[in-house]
Design goal:
With about 325 residues, the chain is mainly α. About 75% of the residues lie in helices and about 0% in strands. Helix 1 packs across helix 14. The radius of gyration is 20 Å and the shape is globular.
Length: about 325
């Protein structure tokens, strides 16, 4: 399939947003104002505003998979597995052998078990989505607009009510395969049935701004686990609106297309525990040491630097893939 630069640009931006979320909420933690706005400091506001804007990254990343559709195959499975293995094993060897010098056979073995012995929740969840994709695609193809709309609407309402609102164990915050399936189905719905509305980009941009504001307001009134859950209705609507902004744009750029292929490597590298633990401690230290404007510049430089470095480093993985004809 011909790569669409507008969507590939969104893929890169989505990964940048994921990096921002990990610097903000995952590293620093989020304040819990619970309606007591008067007690909030500038740094509290900074964390909530940044999280409200960037929390859509994962949903947008999966919306792209749904929009294009996952075409599962044994070759595709091998490509996904090798992608994850390459960084898991390489990082373990570099850190354990070259830096920490505490290499063990058990550690090496666990670095090979990327779908079970991993702290990267998205990897096994995405594998589950990948396995289910042929079933989902086949059923979607056989559905009419009305059938799909009713089924998807019911599935979303069930997730919002039993999952997000009541924090049901099957999908309390969206870190599950159930949530990825729901977002994937929304992406397929957009691809199949979303009409070409005039001024779609303008409407989408206004919607994104509105729902992002609702995320922020919700975070000030409720606990952050609900406000910033991937399956929050406001986060989902903001994600879809942001996706539609890029869907309304049309352009072609080979550099964007080339770089977007390596976007996922940024996640696999920086969220590996051997990298993430010292990295998150470093971020906390910078948060304490720097002024808020300087930390903002620091965060921008870090996320851009990680993405750029990951794209450069990923050339070795892509070269290996070409050798293996994957």
């Amino acid at each position: 399939m011909q790569r669409q630069s507008n969507i590939e640009l969104l893929r890169l931006i989505s990964m940048l947003l994921i990096l921002v979320v990990h610097i903000d909420g995952a590293s620093l933690g989020l304040p819990q104002p619970m309606g007591d706005i008067a007690s909030m400091t500038a740094r509290d506001w900074w964390r909530l505003v940044v999280e409200s804007i960037s929390i859509i990254g994962v949903n947008c990343f999966v919306l792209i998979s749904g929009y294009f559709g996952i075409r599962a195959s044994w070759k595709g499975f091998a490509r996904l597995t090798l992608y994850c293995l390459f960084y898991s094993v390489a990082i373990y060897c570099i850190v354990a052998i070259g830096i920490n010098r505490d290499w063990t056979w058990q550690g090496l073995g666990e670095s090979l078990m990327v779908y079970s012995h991993t702290d990267l929740w998205f990897v096994p969840a995405y594998l589950g989505l990948y396995i289910l994709a042929p079933f989902l695609n086949k059923s979607i193809e056989s559905m009419t607009f009305k059938q799909y709309s009713i089924s998807l609407g019911a599935f979303i309402l069930f997730n919002l009510y039993a999952g997000w609102f009541w924090e049901g164990k099957f999908n309390p915050t969206g870190y599950t395969i159930v949530h990825l399936v729901m977002i994937y189905l929304i992406g397929r719905y957009i691809y199949r049935f979303m009409p070409q509305v005039r001024n779609l980009g303008v409407y989408s941009a206004l919607s994104w701004a509105f729902f992002t504001m609702l995320i922020l307001l919700n975070s000030m009134c409720e606990k952050s686990t609900m406000a910033f859950a991937y399956n929050s209705p406001f986060v989902i609507l903001s994600s879809v609106s942001f996706f539609l902004i890029f869907k309304s744009i049309s352009f072609s750029n080979k550099v964007v297309n080339y770089c977007a292929v390596s976007a996922f490597s940024a996640y696999l590298i920086h969220k590996n525990p051997l990298v993430w633990i010292p990295f998150s401690h470093w971020v906390k230290d910078m948060w304490q040491m720097l002024s808020l404007p300087m930390f903002t510049l620091f965060s921008i430089a870090i996320v851009l630097g990680i993405l750029y470095a990951s794209i450069v480093v990923d050339q070795s993985r892509r070269y290996l893939m070409r050798l293996l004809k994957l």
